[in-house]
C-alpha cells in the first residue's frame, strides 16, 4: 500500500473516490478491504462507495457507512444496497457492538448483507427475513455469489459446561492464559478455581425461576454469553466473552449488566502505565440509556482469601466517577451501608464466597452473582449522583 507524503503528513489514495485521505489505521484497513473487494471478490469499483452519509437516504440520520456495495436489481431495474461494511482499526476487536453498529446502517439502507472487519478478520452476515444477521462461512464469495445468494451459513459454536476434571486440564488452563482470560502472573494455585469460575459465569444454567428478587434489585432475564469489549477509566479495554443479565435496578429502571473474567497484560516501562504485573480481574459492565461503561473491576489476585474449602471475595471500595476523578472510599462504603449494609464485612465490601476444587452450581453461586450485580448497581448510582452535582 503506497503512502503519499504532503506537508510532512502521510496519506493514502482512496481508489473509490480518487482522492488522498489521511493514513489513519482505520483508513489503511478500509483501502485494504476495498482492494480485496475488487481483486478477490470481483466487485466492480463503480459499485463501491466509501464514507456514505446516510442523510442522503434518511435526512434525519447522522450516521456514515464506511463501505457500501451496490447492485442493479434486474427484476426492478433499480439500484439496491447489497453489502455494508463497518471498518475498525487493527487493534479493535470485532464484537457484538460492532455488529450492532453496522446493523443500524442496514436498518436504513436495507442491504442484503452486512460485514465487519479490522483488517485481520472479516465477518459477513446475511440478513434473514426476521431481520436477524446470520454469519456466513469464511470461504471467498464473489459479487455474483452474494447477488445470487450462493452462500453457506457458518455453524454456530456453543460453549458447553465443562466438568471440573476438564477445567483442571493443563492445556485448557494454558489456553485461557494465552487468550487473555487468566493473567500470566496470577498464582498457579488459583488457576483451576479461576478456570471453573469463568465457565460457571459464562454457561452455568440458572436453576430457579426468573425473576430473582434480591435486596432491591431483580434479575429479570438471562442473555447468555456474547463477545464484547468494555474499557476502564485508565484507557484499558477488556475484549472477550461476558454473561449478560437484564436487571431491574434500585431505581426501578432496567439495565443490562455483563460479567466477565480477564487477564491483564504485564507491562514494562509502558509510556502510560509504567511497570505493572499481570493479574486477573472480574469485570461487571453496564449498558443503560446513558450508554455503557465498566462498573466494577475486581482484581481477583488481591481480592480473594482462601477459607477451608472456599474462596471469599472482597472489594476495597475504590471508584472513579469519570471526569470527577476518584471518589473517597468512605463515601462508597456509606452508599453500600445505605443500600446493602450486610455487604460491609471487616471494613471491606464482601461479595460472597464460592467453593474450591469442585464444579460450582447455580445454587452455590447465585448469591455471589446477585451481590456483584447489586454492588455494581450501587456504584453506578453513586457515580450518577456525583455527576449530577
Protein described:
The protein has 389 residues and is an alpha+beta fold. Helix content is 26%, strand content 37%. It has helices spanning 25-39, 96-109, 143-147, 164-167, 170-178, 191-203, 300-303, 329-339, 362-388; strands at 4-6, 9-14, 19-22, 48-53, 64-73, 78-87, 113-117, 122-127, 133-135, 212-214, 217-231, 237-248, 254-263, 267-270, 274-276, 280-288, 291-299, 304-307, 310-315, 319-320, 326-327, 344-345, 348-355. The protein has a 6-stranded mixed beta sheet with strand order 4-5-6-7-8-9, with helices on both faces. It has a 6-stranded antiparallel beta sheet with strand order 10-11-12-13-16-17. Strands 18-19-23-22 form a 4-stranded antiparallel beta sheet. Helix 8 (329-339) crosses helix 9. The longest helix is centred in the C-terminal third of the chain and has 27 residues, at 362-388. It starts with a strand and ends with a helix.
